[in-house]
Write a structure and sequence with these properties.
The protein is mostly beta strands. The chain is built from 5 helices and 35 strands.
Length: 496
């Protein structure tokens, strides 16, 4: 018996030593996927930041005019990419190849716009729909042409784009950093950062909320409540505050995630807390304009919509879907509780007075209709079931059909009736956008997929490698350029 115990103790000691060696020497760590399954990975966080900093330094050592090579014929793009990579790598031989930016020009036939329209989370209407024109109906065998790829700081924010510049917020060591990048080349234009580190074992480190662009100002919200209005051309601070401190509210388990919304000269944010579930700040000064409600907030971004003839701010809190007037008055509410008050997916407008709601964690989906009732709106449930559970992503609408990820499997539901037309294709807890009748999907593992949106069947046209690592971030699409990122990499693809 004693010998057996000694053997067990020795085996445990050896296993512990091996784990320590793997952790310290090789950066072994555990991360969770969207189903909360643990995965082992290697790589030290400090090494990632070392590579990011080396790449940015090398990038800045190249004059801006030289950073964007002259337009190359599309057929020569792949041949040109290794040369571009080599020229970038020379000043940073110590950095890994994965950290090297590979800029390539956008085709001269379709120049980048002078003004941006993808200036909000999930697009200008926050509905995940691209309305600037057609994208490619099919991809070549290797996928869409990659313009560039480079490291990025941690976090789950997406991009917004204005005047050829993409903006996001990311974690860099112990600082949250808002960064501006040239869309055509990936070149970093400016950063603005502050001391803050939101760390959460299941979701990972870094800020969550996508910035918002309006009238030359970028509004960025950090995971711990830091709200900054920055000049979009320089990154200079116009004003700053902390929405959690202002509201006397505690942070959420997975941090502040709702993208700021600009409405009638106000910045709408959702700190939660008594009497300050939703707060409006003046865009010019950062002074509070109004506060409303007592809800515990969730992870849904507010949306400006018109439903049942009423212009309103719609969102989902920890326990209910609500519509609020632009001056903070509650117009309607509909119970929408989930386990631990985890609502993440955006509601989508499916008719002049109708909304689609969906959440994961076993909750499901519903369609509701708003009916005028004096100064208020009355809510009627049209249907509800558990066969479309948007957990970490949001659905899109096309021709009366909702397309979304039901716990990682692509599904099509008839908006009017809730009838499931089909459910097929595993993409994990990724994200999707709609462009014309094409779904652009980023899978949870960073692949890019092109799917024909039809209620008849799953019609996947292509699936190719995109970026490496767990990818929960929503992609952005501006002038046919698809911008994707996760907690380690960012890249741009030409899908025109």
């Amino acid at each position: 018996m004693i010998k057996w115990l000694r053997r067990v103790a020795l085996a445990v000691a050896v296993a512990a030593l091996v784990l320590v060696v793997l952790r310290v020497g090789f950066g072994l760590h555990v991360y969770m996927d969207g189903d909360f399954r643990p995965h082992l990975a290697f790589g030290r966080q400090s090494a990632h930041y070392d590579a990011l900093e080396a790449q940015r330094a090398a990038q800045q050592s190249v004059p801006p005019a030289a950073a964007a090579p002259p337009p190359a014929p599309k057929a020569d793009a792949e041949a040109a990419a290794p040369q571009a990579a080599a020229s970038q790598a020379a000043p940073q031989a110590a950095a890994s190849q994965a950290a090297v930016s590979q800029p390539a020009p956008a085709p001269a036939t379709a120049p980048l716009p002078t003004a941006g329209s993808w200036i909000d989370y999930r697009g200008p209407a926050r509905d995940g729909v691209y309305r600037q024109g057609a994208v490619a109906a099919a991809w070549p065998a290797g996928g869409p042409r990659r313009l560039w790829k480079q490291p990025v700081g941690e976090g789950h924010a997406s991009f917004v784009v204005a005047r050829g510049v993409a903006y996001t917020i990311e974690q860099r060591r112990s600082r949250e950093v808002v960064a501006a990048y040239d869309v055509a080349t990936g070149r970093e234009r400016w950063t603005n950062g502050w001391d803050a580190l939101f760390s959460e074992a299941m979701g990972g480190d870094g800020p969550r909320a996508t910035p918002t662009y309006a009238d030359g100002i970028l509004y960025a919200l950090g995971a711990a409540g830091e709200l900054r209005a920055l000049r979009a051309d320089t990154g200079t601070v116009v004003w700053r505050t902390n929405i959690l401190q202002d509201a006397g509210a505690e942070n959420l388990q997975w941090g502040m995630s709702a993208s700021p919304l600009i409405v009638d000269g106000k910045v709408i944010v959702q700190p939660g807390g008594r009497g300050a579930s939703i707060v409006a700040y003046h865009v010019s000064s950062g002074r509070i304009a109004w506060k409303a409600l007592d809800d515990m907030q969730a992870y849904v971004s507010p949306m400006l919509v018109t439903l049942a003839g009423r212009r309103q701010i719609v969102t989902i809190t920890g326990t209910r879907a609500i519509g609020v007037s632009v001056d903070g008055g509650l117009l309607w509410s509909y119970p929408w509780p989930t386990d631990n008050a985890i609502n993440i997916a955006q509601p989508i407008v499916i008719g002049p007075s109708r909304l689609f709601l969906s959440s994961g964690y076993g909750k499901g989906a519903a369609a509701i209709e708003l009916i005028p009732d004096g100064d208020q709106l009355r809510v009627t449930k049209l249907w509800e079931h558990t066969r479309m559970k948007n957990k970490l992503s949001s659905s899109v609408l096309l021709d009366g059909y909702v397309y979304g990820l039901d716990e990682g499997i692509l599904s099509c539901v008839e908006a009017a009736t809730g009838q499931v037309k089909w459910k097929n294709g595993r993409y994990g807890h990724g994200q999707l956008l709609l462009a014309g009748d094409r779904l652009l999907i980023t899978t949870e593992t960073g692949e890019l997929a092109l799917v024909h949106a039809t209620p008849d069947r799953l019609d996947e046209l292509a699936r190719v490698p995109g970026i490496e690592g767990r990818t929960w971030n929503v992609p952005a699409l501006e002038n046919g350029i698809l911008l994707v990122r996760n907690a380690s990499e960012m890249a741009a693809f030409d899908v025109r």
